[in-house]
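Lecture 7, part 2: worked example. A protein chain together with iron/sulfur cluster.
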Amino acid sequence: MCRACPRLVAWREEVALTRRRAFRDEPYWGRPIPGWGAAKPRLLIVGLAPAAHGGNRTGRIFTGDRSGDFLFASLYRTGFAVQPTSVRAGDGQRLIDARMVAAVRCAPPDNKPEPAERDTCAAWLTAEFRLVAADLKVIVCLGGFAWQALWPVLSRCGFAVPRPRPAFGHGTETRVTSAQTPDGVLLIGCYHPSQQNTFTGRVTPAMLDAIFTRAHAAASL
Ligand code: SF4
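Predicted complex, written out as structure tokens:
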């Protein structure tokens, strides 16, 4: 098991030991969270990092927390998920033609990984990306952190990265190509469905639905 980031290792394990009162009878995962979903996805969703009492508890990214509730409701409405909720591993949820992965695989304090931790974990993101790159049509980056994390990964996997790199924004689109994917992969920016964004209305269900409807159309081409 990876222990390359001492601060994150300490946090993921401390949270798993102390637990939140509501989950005190549940075993916590407390380890790095790999991606999950289709083995040959047309859509890849890149998130930030597991939530301390969400993915770090359930062992599945965006599962068992408010961000996941918001995200999966949209994925269900737009045809990428078979259920509107993602509560725990083994709950019957399944992604359709889609896979999701975190830029940083271990839960960070305050949901804020440091740039050095992002760079260290990029080896894992790259390894997973290589496995699915040939089948991808669309990538949705949830938040600027994921957007920034992806560029070096694309470069390492043989994609031509535009210079200057496009700035992150909600609905920002750019197409990247590689020898493996001559038709290109559409990269779409999307505000992260964090509680901070959804509670303040910065991200609404309609905004997420518009992004994933667009992703669905592009993935079907
Ligand atoms: S964040 Fe990534 S690199 Fe760091 S300990 Fe976790 S799995 Fe390893």
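The longest strand covers residues 185-190. Residues 16 and 28 are 5 Å apart (CA to CA). Keep this in mind for problem set question 3.
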